[in-house]
Amino acid sequence: MPGVNTVSTLGASPVLSRRLALLLPAALAACSRPARAQRGLPDFADLAERVLPAVVSIQVTSREQSTLPPELRGTPYERQFREQQRRGGQLVQGAGSGFIIEPSGVIVTNGHVVGNATRVTITTHDGMDYAARVVGVDELTDLALLRITPRAPLAAVSLGTSANMRVGQWVMAAGNPFGLGGSVTSGIISARGRDIGAGPFDDFIQTDAPINPGNSGGPLFNMQGEVIGINTAIYSPSGASAGIGFAVPSDLARPVIEALIRGGRVERGWLGVSVGDAEEQGRRQRGALVMGVERGSPAARAGLRQGDVVIALNGERVETSRALVRSIAGLPPGETVRLTLIRGGRSQEIAVQIGRRPNDNQG
């Protein structure tokens, strides 16, 4: 609907109303981009020819679970509806993109592409189809790892260093828009470090390279052919493409991918606190304000209290609540850390043994 922001998960998940649009159901751009006829602009032909063999299309089948519509409650159709849900719900189809990072058949994509898939099929650039196994999914970064068994070693691409990318540099997106497969678009990096409200690990690269339905999970390349981002979402006030896309930076994705390869899951550190940015007389101050402490958590055992303001972790300054959450999450469970905090106007230090993070958005 005009004027309404929407979010739709890619693949087999249902459409949800939110502010951002995940890439599957986003509409085509309302108007075409102006032709670039100026001299000195890059030619992407060689780059596309080199990397496209490592870009794959993903087809997903999953079962959609629905809630009972109020109008069916108490009618003869209620039993039929519940029986269908008991058998696994309705089969739905989805599509997305991915890229091969190991010639043996290891593929990276978005977590929302595979969702609760019952079957995942990979189509490589040469048209070969493979049944894929979901190795692991990390919901907090929306990344997933798939594995196929190819007949021969596959073309693969490597992760670059997203921290080296600058606003204004050229990039190329590749993927499977609208199920067409093997498509590329170009643009620039519009911004870095974007927080779009998706979770505590938001650190997105923003690009104006056109990305459309089916591009989710596809690579965003620098001009050297390295993957510096995984295309994940677009901003869409009306449901149509607005030329604002977001990609998970490779520096954030790399440790997640490595952890999924090693053991199929990502283990993160956890304190067991809810935190917000510290404020003083209506002005934002340095530090993370402890707003709540979960009973039995590492923070509770260490003596953290509601109202404490954490200003440093192992001597490193903590500027925001998000910085604290991300720093703790990057630590291995079992490690003991030193927190510097302000309590009752006085500074003090406490030692906390980091726990294992559950699958939620707490710190």
Pick out its properties.
363 residues; mainly beta; Thrombin, subunit H; 2 domains; seven-stranded antiparallel beta sheet; 6 helices; globular; disordered N terminus
SSE diagram, text form:
Elements lengths: L6 E2 L6 E2 L3 E3 L22 H7 L3 E10 L11 H11 L3 E13 L3 E5 H4 L2 E7 L5 E3 L1 E6 L4 E5 L22 E6 L7 E12 L9 E4 L11 E3 L5 E9 L9 E5 H14 L5 E2 L2 E8 L2 E11 L4 H5 L6 E5 L2 E2 L3 H9 L6 E8 L2 E8 L1 E2 L7
Antiparallel strand pairs: 1-2, 3-15, 4-5, 4-7, 5-6, 6-10, 7-8, 9-10, 11-12, 11-14, 12-13, 13-16, 14-15, 15-16, 17-24, 18-19, 19-20, 20-21, 20-22, 22-23
Summarize the structure in short.
This protein is mainly beta and 363 residues long.
Distance between the termini: 36 Å
What's the total helix number? 6
- What fold name stands as the CATH topology of the largest domain? Thrombin, subunit H
Residue share in β-strands: 35-45%
Question: How do the SSEs run, as a string of H and E?
Answer: EEEHEHEEHEEEEEEEEEEHEEEHEEHEEE
**Rg value:** 23 Å
Tell me the overall shape: globular
Q: Got a strand count?
A: 24
Main β sheet profile: 7 strands, antiparallel
Number of domains: 2
Cross-sheet strand order for the largest sheet: 8-7-4-5-6-10-9
Structural class: mainly beta
Class of the largest domain, according to the CATH hierarchy?
A: Mainly Beta
